[in-house]
Write a structure and sequence with these properties.
The protein is an all-alpha fold. It has eight helices and no strands. The termini are far apart. The N terminus is likely disordered.
Length: 188
């Protein structure tokens, strides 16, 4: 029963309804990959199609702006994972068809989310993540400056000694003077 349900679900998922045909571009000449039509995500190409060494150079440049979802700390230009290689081929295909860097980054952002960008946009929660460390550094610098100013002002004893010298001597209580004399702690 479970096996029948799994097969039915797999068949249902693999079929495409006539109302929404699958948009797939022609196979890539380099790797035989089928790249989804980016036009449905970012519009028609706005740049000039690239080929040869310029295509390789731009593929590496754009690939270095995208994070590998598998390696997470590396760009797809530097990652050896199969996923990164496939994504790099998609970048190559899109550049060869004339898509601009901005369109390609937008395409991958729509496909994978903002996480795929190595340099996230400065908006929403990401803006707070960018500003919070800077704010913490500023508050720390203000506290440090305030503490240094207190240390430079010197100990308060210098000021209090001068104030004591200028103040008149306190009048001694005669009762306390008599007690000191009797106890032996008085003045000779």
């Amino acid at each position: 029963m479970i096996r029948t349900l799994a097969l039915s679900a797999a068949l249902l998922a693999s079929t495409v309804s006539p109302a929404q045909p699958a948009r797939v571009s022609a196979p890539s000449a380099d790797a035989g990959l089928r790249v989804p039509d980016a036009a449905q995500f970012v519009g028609s190409p706005k740049g000039t199609p690239l080929a040869g060494p310029e295509l390789n150079k731009r593929t590496h440049e754009v690939g270095s702006l995208l994070r590998c979802p598998v390696c997470q700390g590396m760009s797809i230009a530097d990652s050896p994972s199969e996923m990164a290689v496939n994504m790099k081929e998609q970048v190559r295909e899109l550049l060869a068809r004339g898509y601009t860097e901005e369109q390609i980054l937008q395409y991958f952002e729509l496909s994978y989310g903002q996480f795929v960008l190595l340099k996230p946009k400065f908006e929403g929660v990401t803006g707070v993540v960018w500003v919070l460390p800077l704010l913490a550094l500023a508050v720390g610098a203000v506290i440090l400056v305030m503490k240094l100013r207190k240390l430079e002002a010197g100990p308060p004893s210098r000021q209090s000694e001068e104030a004591r010298a200028a103040a008149p001597a306190p009048v001694e209580d005669p009762y306390l003077a008599r007690v000191r004399d009797l106890v032996g702690g008085g003045k000779p």
